[in-house]
């Protein structure tokens, strides 16, 4: 999946992020031991993670550079979302 193509197809960042979340949900399901074989390879997964990392870094750099949020606000929200399941583990609640 190419993120730039996805953005042009959905027309907005929200639509693209919803699609990405769906793909990640499918990948999570495919990784469970009981899931049927899926065409998701380790190489494709690594590529998707690298691309998502670049997107997140780009977005946060823009938000900080344009003074839309501060790093303190970002860290506060990050910790809030991390603790939604009651466990500070750097993961989203399932």
- How would you spell out the order of helices and strands? HHHH
pLDDT < 50 runs, ≥5 residues: none
Q: Main sheet, how many strands, which sense, barrel?
A: none
Determine Rg (CA atoms, Å). 15 Å
Q: How would you explain this protein's 3D organization?
A:
By secondary structure, this protein is mainly α. The chain is 67% helix and 0% strand. The chain contains four helices and no strands. The protein has helices spanning 3-10, 13-31, 42-65, 71-82. Helix 1 (3-10) crosses helix 2 (13-31). The longest helix has 24 residues, at 42-65. The chain is globular and about 40 Å long.
List strands and helices in order, with pairings.
Elements: H1 3-10, H2 13-31, H3 42-65, H4 71-82
Helix pairs in contact: 1-2
Descriptive labels:
94 residues, 4 helices, mainly alpha, single chain
Summarize, please.
The protein is mostly helical.
């Amino acid at each position: 999946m190419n993120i730039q193509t996805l953005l042009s197809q959905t027309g907005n960042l929200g639509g693209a992020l919803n699609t990405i979340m769906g793909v990640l949900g499918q990948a999570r399901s495919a990784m469970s031991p009981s899931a049927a074989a899926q065409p998701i390879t380790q190489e494709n997964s690594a590529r998707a993670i690298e691309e998502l990392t670049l997107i997140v870094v780009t977005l946060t750099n823009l938000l900080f550079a344009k003074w839309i949020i501060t790093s303190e606000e970002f860290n506060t929200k990050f910790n809030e979302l991390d603790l939604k399941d009651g466990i500070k583990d750097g993961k989203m609640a399932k």
